């Protein structure tokens, strides 16, 4: 991607999304009118959800329901609680984005039906509507702001891109533009999944709650691909339709360790590493159960990677997997458990930490989704040459780093 003039950064980014990645691109500034048959279908510049598109996709993904069901779904998706913080609202909307909208309605026989409506087709990216809008006016309570690029998927503003001229430091996009937008037009970010800054050469990705130091580059498109730290790598790695929906569905966490939700988006190495591990689980028979080692350096987010991995296995692969997370020190056991708990994956109300070897064995018989233990409490003998089980959700031994995930079934325990 070559930029010959600084002023072309925004348009060239939009062109790349359209020509290379298959998004539709429109230029809204001085072109947008309002009303049901207008360019975007917005009734006014305060609206940030393209309800015309959203309702159409709800109908396409959840056919043959009464009109009132689609109307109710749109209301739920667009409704907000004024007293909530931006982060809390974003977390609530993310649940609807990822898991769908729960509705109760009467069918054509007059019977009350409870059904969850899909908002996205995560399995078939091309069944979704990807729209890039340049220079979109958005009105807040006091001010109007014009966003450089907003990416809508099925009518929801999931992507925000602030473009700077080539000579500008990306930090100014965070400190001046993004911070201002977050204060003056916060509703633009209620449904946001990804925040991106780019100046044509460099680009960084983060979330609505990220501090500047937590915005990261996207260095490569595949584990064995040569690194290229530039804006094109980030756009192609993040905004390719399949990758974008995968990130939205499986690589966003909300960590509440500090009280207020902190939104976490996978870094490049986590996205690639977790997906390679997922591929190994899918191919575990052909690989004879050897999943490999997912190596992390200090501070690279191994706890979050483990949450993302185990959660994606449960969501996408099914099976009765039990993940046993082993460490060798009390403080590590506490730290990793708290990460899972603060991300809402486990709860103190359903104990899953082993206090002893006997307790560990008792927990395993309960077939919990997650169990945490010190490795010295894992005192069953495992003979590598013995067959493990006829079940297909067994992962045989493969020792990795000091923090290990183990899959258990029928009193056989398997490391990777």
Write the layout of secondary structure elements.
Blueprint: H1 9-19, E1 24-27, H2 51-61, H3 67-78, H4 86-99, E2 101-106, E3 112-117, E4 130-139, E5 144-153, E6 156-163, H5 170-184, E7 194-198, E8 203-206, H6 231-239, H7 241-250, E9 252-255, E10 262-265, H8 268-282, H9 302-317, E11 323-327, H10 330-342, H11 357-365, E12 370-374, E13 404-409, E14 412-415
Parallel strand pairs: 1-4, 6-7, 11-12
Antiparallel strand pairs: 2-3, 4-5, 5-6, 7-8, 9-10, 11-13, 13-14
Helix pairs in contact: 2-3, 8-9
Question: What do you see in this structure?
Answer:
The protein is α+β, with helices and mostly antiparallel strands and about 425 residues long. The protein has two domains: about 5-60 and about 125-255, Alpha-Beta Complex (tt1808, chain A); about 290-415. Helices cover about 30% and strands about 20% of the residues. The protein is built from eleven helices and 14 strands. The protein has helices spanning about 10-20, 50-60, 65-80, 85-100, 170-185, 230-240, 240-250, 270-280, 300-315, 330-340, 355-365; strands at about 25, 100-105, 110-115, 130-140, 145-155, 155-165, 195-200, 205, 250-255, 260-265, 325, 370-375, 405-410, 410-415. Strands 1-4-5-6-7-8 form a six-stranded mixed β-sheet, with helices on both faces. A four-stranded mixed β-sheet has the order 12-11-13-14. A hairpin with a 5-residue loop joins strand 2 (about 100-105) and strand 3 (about 110-115). Helix 2 crosses helix 3 and helix 8 (about 270-280) packs across helix 9 (about 300-315). The radius of gyration is 23 Å and the shape is globular.
């Amino acid at each position: 991607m070559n930029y010959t003039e600084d002023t072309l950064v925004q348009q060239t980014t939009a062109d790349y999304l359209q020509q290379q990645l298959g998004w539709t691109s429109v230029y809204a500034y001085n072109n947008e009118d309002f009303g049901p048959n207008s360019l975007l279908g917005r009734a006014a510049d305060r609206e940030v959800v393209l309800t015309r598109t959203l309702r159409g996709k709800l109908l396409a993904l959840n056919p043959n329901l009464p009109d009132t069901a689609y109307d109710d779904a749109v209301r739920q998706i667009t409704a907000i609680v004024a007293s909530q913080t931006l982060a809390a609202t974003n977390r609530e909307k993310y649940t609807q984005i990822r898991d769908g909208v729960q509705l109760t309605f009467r069918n054509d026989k007059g019977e009350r039906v409870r059904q969850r409506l899909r908002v996205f087709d995560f399995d078939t990216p091309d069944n979704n509507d990807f729209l890039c809008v340049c220079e979109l006016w958005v009105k807040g309570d006091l001010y109007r702001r014009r966003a450089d690029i907003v990416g809508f998927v099925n009518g929801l503003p999931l992507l925000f891109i602030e473009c700077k001229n080539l000579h500008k430091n990306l930090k100014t996009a965070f400190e001046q533009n993004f911070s201002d937008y977050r204060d003056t037009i916060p509703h633009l970010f209620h449904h946001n999944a990804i925040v991106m800054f780019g100046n044509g050469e460099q680009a960084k990705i983060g979330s609505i709650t990220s501090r500047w130091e937590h915005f990261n580059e996207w260095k490569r498109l595949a584990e064995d691909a040569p690194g290229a730290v530039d804006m094109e790598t980030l756009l192609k790695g993040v905004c390719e339709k399949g990758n974008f929906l995968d990130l939205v569905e499986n690589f966003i966490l909300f960590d509440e360790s500090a009280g207020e939700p902190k939104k976490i988006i996978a870094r490049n190495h986590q996205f690639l590493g977790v997906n390679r591990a997922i591929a190994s689980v899918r191919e575990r028979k052909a690989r004879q159960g050897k999943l490999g080692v997912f190596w992390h350096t200090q501070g690279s987010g191994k706890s979050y990677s483990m949450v993302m991995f185990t959660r994606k296995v449960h969501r996408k692969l099914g099976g009765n997997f039990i993940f046993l997370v082993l460490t060798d020190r009390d403080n590590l056991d506490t730290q990793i458990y708290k990460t899972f708990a603060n991300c809402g994956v486990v709860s103190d109300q359903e104990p899953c930490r082993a206090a002893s070897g006997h307790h560990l064995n008792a927990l395993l018989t309960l077939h919990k989704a997650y169990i945490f233990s010190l490795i010295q409490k894992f005192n069953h003998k495992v003979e590598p040459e013995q067959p493990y089980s006829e079940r297909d959700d067994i992962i045989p031994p493969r020792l990795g780093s000091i923090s290990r995930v183990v899959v258990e079934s029928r009193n056989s325990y398997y490391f990777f």
